[in-house]
Amino acid sequence: MHNSVKLQFLSVAGNEQFARTTAAAFASQMNPSVEELSDIRTAVSEAVKNAIVHGYDCQPDKTVTMWMEIKDDILEIVVSDTGRGIPDLALAQKPFYTSKPGLELSGVGFSVMHAFMDEVDVESTCGVGTAVTMRKRIRHAS
Q: How far apart are CA 44 and CA 132, in angstroms?
């Protein structure tokens, strides 16, 4: 099976729910387990939230892009922004690190993505933006 879709949406908090629901709906054609769907939804939520809060500083007029592709039993999801970028990727991916300590953020976004997806790759350039690529093998893929 092969299929792909690309979405663009404004960087507003309500679109986090839209993105996670859309990712689960797209993945559903692979016949995933309930646990796999939950993992996908959670990881997408974290990636989109990072783009909105950290990439764009919650500026609602910016655009988040989510590209999804199915190749056989692999689901690949890329969430990207054209925001400020991450100056220190290694530091940003440490558990409980947050660049916004004044907000009630726990600093576990990347840890959650790594825990729920099989692979997570992050590319970021300051002043250009960030792309988070997540892959998950769907065990029940039909």
A: 10
CB atoms within 10 A of CB 88: 12
Answer for the pair 16, 23: CB distance below 8 angstroms, yes or no: no
pLDDT in tens, the chain (142 residues): 899 999 999 999 999 999 999 999 999 999 999 999 999 999 999 999 999 999 999 999 999 999 999 999 999 999 999 999 988 777 777 766 666 666 655 666 888 899 999 999 999 999 999 999 999 999 875 5
How is the chain split into domains, by residue range? 2-137
CATH architecture entry for 2-137? 2-Layer Sandwich (3.30)
Spatial strand order in the sheet of 63-71 = 2-10, 63-71, 74-81, 129-137, 119-125
